[in-house]
Design a protein that fits this description.
Length: about 250
């Protein structure tokens, strides 16, 4: 089955674009052979997930399954669920992960689901952690509140990791024309202040603590090429309860 157009797919919060080489994937670093930025992102995400203690992990907008493939190598992660709106991406992920060749024990750890991240989905509840890596910038800004509620308000994993480009760093790529985004499908690229405001707002609205981290070389003037937000759900206060709706919609 052919997948939807990449532009329409990304509007629903799916299809992480890593297969297409872009100037923004290779930080300019003199003096040593640089590690691709996509690899650094996955390593930073995996490290944060290890330290969080998460066992059941959602990769939202999983694309071709690179992150799931990396996490599958570690026993800590007992359930890995990749979600993408594009069936074509999921088919590629299935081939990359060689799901038809894995033993029953390994294959039972992986689930791939088709779904939009801007709609609530009961299949995504009950996970320890969720990852939105290079996803939000592919969503039109007016639709971000829908994605925010679906992930932070409805699914509510204990840990959420979000990465997105830092537009300030774009000037460090000589091959990237001034004012041009790193990928043609990016709806926006935020500077550090704008990302901080968004992350802190999400945390305040949904009860998460927020820690911002750099990914890649942290330039003293323009910051890192990728910015990462680590969200950790505040524990519910002792004695807190969820009101049970009466018949007719009013809370008890």
């Amino acid at each position: 089955m052919a997948g939807p157009d990449p532009r329409s797919a990304s509007q629903d919060g799916g299809t992480r674009v890593e297969a297409v080489p872009t100037p923004g994937e290779q930080p300019p670093e003199a003096g040593r052979q640089s590690v691709p930025l996509a690899v650094r992102r996955r390593e930073a995400i995996a490290d944060a997930l290890r330290h969080s203690g998460a066992a059941r992990v959602l990769d939202l907008g999983c694309g071709q399954g690179q992150l799931v493939s990396l996490l599958l190598k570690e026993r800590q992660f007992t359930q890995l669920t990749g979600v993408d709106v594009a069936m074509r991406a999921l088919q590629t992920a299935t081939r990359r992960l060689r799901l038809d060749q894995l033993g029953e024990r390994q294959s039972s750890r992986v689930t791939l689901l088709q779904g939009s991240l801007t709609y609530t989905d009961r299949r995504l509840k009950g996970y320890d952690a969720a990852v939105l890596s290079e996803v939000i910038e592919h969503v039109d800004e007016p639709r971000l509140p829908s994605l925010e509620f679906a992930v932070f308000g409805f699914a509510r994993p204990t840990t959420v990791l979000v990465t997105t480009p830092n537009v300030e760093y774009n000037v460090r790529w000589e091959s990237l024309p001034a004012g041009q985004a790193r990928h043609a499908d990016h709806r926006f690229e935020w500077d550090r202040a704008r990302f901080r405001d968004w992350a802190e707002g999400v945390g305040a609205r949904h009860g998460y603590a927020v820690e911002l981290r750099p990914v890649g070389p942290d330039d003293p003037e323009v910051g890192p090429p990728t910015q990462l937000a680590l969200f950790t759900l505040f524990p519910a206060p002792r004695g807190a309860f969820t009101p049970i709706p009466r018949k007719g919609g009013a809370a008890a």
